[in-house]
Design the sequence.
């Protein structure tokens, strides 16, 4: 059967999301997230372009990472900021007890905390942050859930950066070929291919997101859904990450 990427395949589910998935493979998947995201997610460039200019050497900037999973992005932002001599406090939240347990078992990093929670829990508690981020989470959501996340993001922070995969043949084939020799002992490769098939395109998102949000293409593989940034306010498309 030929692959058809014209529409989102929302009926597909990722293996690691199953409550009865293999705990050994799930552990390996969390451990390998940092490596695969370093190659495919583009967050180093996003940090340089859209996060570092917001940070200060004297004032602490608060960042919320929604759906933080294994915690690699949460920890990376804190690491990059510390290396640049900038002050930041990063909180990662995930409703999955397994992800929360993994992230909290990692060696602690100053300014990093992990909590088991939904974004709506933080809204209900009246919490606020300077910036909301997420990585490869939007493709997990239904249309109603996407609307709820974006509303929560607006309530929690004046700026948001939600990065995800673009559904395309280039992304599907590229991820499949580049990961084929690796990640055999985890869910990284099969779930990554499923993620591409479930993902939005920037054009699809721009047609449904509320005013003030804009999906900015980052590369042939991904985009950043932005709010409260120059790109989302003016419609300027950022250059692809190096």
Sequence:
């Amino acid at each position: 059967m030929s692959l058809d990427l014209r529409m989102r395949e929302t009926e597909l589910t990722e293996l690691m999301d199953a409550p009865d998935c293999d705990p050994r493979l799930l552990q390996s998947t969390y451990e390998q997230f940092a490596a695969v995201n370093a190659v495919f997610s583009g967050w180093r460039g996003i940090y340089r372009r859209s996060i570092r200019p917001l940070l200060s050497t004297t004032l602490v900037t608060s960042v919320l990472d929604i759906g933080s999973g294994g915690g690699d992005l949460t920890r990376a932002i804190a690491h990059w900021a510390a290396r640049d001599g900038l002050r930041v406090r990063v909180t990662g939240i995930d409703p999955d007890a397994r992800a929360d347990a993994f992230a909290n078992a990692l060696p602690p990093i100053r300014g990093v905390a992990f909590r088991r929670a939904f974004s709506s829990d933080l809204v209900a508690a009246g919490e606020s942050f300077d910036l909301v981020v997420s990585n490869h989470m939007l493709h997990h959501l239904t249309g109603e859930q996407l609307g709820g996340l974006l509303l929560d993001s607006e309530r929690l922070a004046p700026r948001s950066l939600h990065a995800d995969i673009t559904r395309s043949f280039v992304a599907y084939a590229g991820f499949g070929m580049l990961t084929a020799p690796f990640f055999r002992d985890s869910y990284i490769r099969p779930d990554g291919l499923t993620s591409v098939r479930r993902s939005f395109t920037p054009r699809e998102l721009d047609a449904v997101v509320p005013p003030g949000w804009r999906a900015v293409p980052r590369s042939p593989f991904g985009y950043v859904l932005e709010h409260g940034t120059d790109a989302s306010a003016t419609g300027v498309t950022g250059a692809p990450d190096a």
Remarks:
- Residues 232-242 have pLDDT under 50 and may be disordered.
- The radius of gyration is 17 Å.
